[in-house]
């Protein structure tokens, strides 16, 4: 996706994956910078581990406790959370203010999701396999209680469940009439959760849409301009159908 966009814009750049443990993060970031590196995306658990290494952070990093996008400045590495920004962009404007949201899963993606929903003054409930108090949620429920009928306005899958190579869940909670779902899994795009929502004509923000949006938003920090979204969409749809 990024490499196709680089070519479209005439950038002599390459996007590639690098394996990195938390203890190697500082060293590998420095090596990357010495090689001329300009921008970085991080996956779990590095989104949280990187925070002490950053000289500046955006509002969504502060709200979510995680940074998935880094960019180099004269002072050092700065961080943003384009996962939060992508979800905030894609949710209907001023929708569900004061409503109820269920987030399935309690990891980093769940925390980023909660930051966005709570800013919209939603009451956020998190379903976890091993319930524990969370400072960033309004309530926590047991895993099996996620299927109990409740008047949810937004239901979010913030787990890897449904992803290719991961476990599946046949039953998914759905929102009340007028609500919507958010699915963070993007491969496959049409997960069982998404299929259930479609069967009930429930609006969906799917994982592939979130993936492209958060990737495009990173370009504002890496290059100072908008990304070529159409090119990115063509690339990611071609990949997702393989």
Q: Which properties best describe this structure?
A:
single chain, 242 residues, alpha/beta, Rossmann fold, 2 domains, 6-stranded parallel sheet, 4-stranded mixed sheet, 10 strands, globular
What does this structure look like?
This protein has 242 residues and is an alpha/beta fold. It folds into 2 domains: 2-84 and 209-240, Leucine Dehydrogenase, chain A, domain 1 (Rossmann fold, 3-Layer(aba) Sandwich), CATH 3.40.50.10860; 90-205, NAD(P)-binding Rossmann-like Domain (Rossmann fold). The protein contains 9 helices and 10 strands. It has helices at 2-9, 25-34, 46-49, 59-64, 82-90, 108-119, 192-199, 207-222, 229-240, and strands at residues 39-41, 56-57, 69-72, 77-80, 100-104, 123-128, 139-142, 154-157, 180-183, 204-205. The strands form 2 sheets. Strands 7-6-5-8-9-10 form a 6-stranded parallel β-sheet. Strands 1-3-4-2 form a 4-stranded mixed β-sheet. Helix 7 links the parallel strand 9 and strand 10. Helix 5 (82-90) packs across helix 6 (108-119), helix 5 packs across helix 8 and helix 8 (207-222) packs across helix 9 (229-240). It is globular, with a radius of gyration of 18 Å.
């Amino acid at each position: 996706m990024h490499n196709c966009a680089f070519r479209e814009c005439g950038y002599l750049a390459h996007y590639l994956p690098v394996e990195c443990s938390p203890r190697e993060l500082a060293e590998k970031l420095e090596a990357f910078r010495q090689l001329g590196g300009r921008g970085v995306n991080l996956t779990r658990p590095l989104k949280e581990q990187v925070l002490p290494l950053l000289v500046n952070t955006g509002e969504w990093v502060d709200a979510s406790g995680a940074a998935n996008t880094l960019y180099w400045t004269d002072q050092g590495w700065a961080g943003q959370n384009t996962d939060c920004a992508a979800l905030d962009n894609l949710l209907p404007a001023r929708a569900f203010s004061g409503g109820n949201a269920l987030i399935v899963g309690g990891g980093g993606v769940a925390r980023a999701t909660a930051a966005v929903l709570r800013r919209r003054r939603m009451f956020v409930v998190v379903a976890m396999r091993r319930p524990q108090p969370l400072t960033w949620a309004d309530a926590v429920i047991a895993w099996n209680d996620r299927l109990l009928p409740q008047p949810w306005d937004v239901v979010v899958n913030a787990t890897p469940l449904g992803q290719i190579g991961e476990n599946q869940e046949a039953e998914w909670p759905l929102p009340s009439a007028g609500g919507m779902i958010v699915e963070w899994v993007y491969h496959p795009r049409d997960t069982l959760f998404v299929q259930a929502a479609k069967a009930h004509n429930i609006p969906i923000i799917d994982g592939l849409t979130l993936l492209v949006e958060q990737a495009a938003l990173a370009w504002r920090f890496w290059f100072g301009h908008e990304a070529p979204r159409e090119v990115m969409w063509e690339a990611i749809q071609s990949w997702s159908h393989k």
